[in-house]
Specification:
Strand content: 25-35%
Number of strands: 16
Largest sheet: 7 strands, mixed
Helix content: 10-25%
Distance between the termini: 10 Å
Radius of gyration: 19 Å
Shape: globular
CATH topology of the largest domain: Quinone Oxidoreductase, Chain A, domain 1
Order of helices and strands: EEEHEEEEEHHEHEHEEEEHEHE
CATH superfamily of the largest domain: Medium-chain alcohol dehydrogenases, catalytic domain
Oligomer: single chain
Amino acid sequence: MRAAIVSRFGGPEAVEITEVPVPNPGPGQVRIKVAAAALNPVDAAMRAGVFGSAGEQVGLGWDVAGTVESVGDGVSRSPGERVIGLATGHRTPLGTHAEYAILPADGIAPAPMTLDDIHAAALPLNALSAAQALDMAALTPGQSLLVTGAAGGVGAHTVELAHHRGLKVTALASARDEEFLHSRGTNGFLPRDAALPASAFDGVIDTAMLGDLALAPIRDGGAYIGVWPGQEPASERGIRVGALDVRADGTQLAELSELTDQGVVLARIAGTFSLADAAVAHARLTEGGLRGRIVLVP
């Protein structure tokens, strides 16, 4: 089968399409015939060597949508089932940017019935990140939340899910995204170049990675959640500081799939590329300015 890997770190040109054996599922695993797999900023980070060591093969791709083809021992999933899933891990030899992918059975979920595979592939990493960041923030209905980078993949899902959970949500984003974010559930909006109000919110989920700048708008004793472990600011004024390390969770992903079918969560696609053009897709991701995910199709 074909798979996108890097064997040397660098820019988009480092992405290789190589032939590898079709992997077999072990106990507790499933093999998915990949229909579509999203390209995320974490893939660019892996390609650049943020997580790896020189000389090792790194498989690209975390998100996947497709069908279960075969299962390992102890797995009750049925071949032919249409699923979505998240493959975490920074140094695996193969990821989901391939014709087949191996995932733990407890990390997959039924695909949303209302979405095609391309749109479904954009959900797992971003939606799970948003849900788990909100879990970490542990705010209660009626409390206020500022989401930085609110028009991005994780940020937009954070807005949607926070609104669904009964929080008062303010979005920090480009002015061109104000109307979209209001449609997804924001109560307030701040242009990204605006001065942040002091001590105005019970919590901040900082998908734009503003760091120390994002502490000022938090009330004493509030919560700050970043999305890049090790990059979060030091606590001050009793603010609880944490950073998300997203995990695969089939149960939570199934809930998010249902919320997608209910219209709470919206999958946005910026474009599609063939797996053979993965390097071109990486180059487009590097250019920035996307609203939605790039998706690779084998």
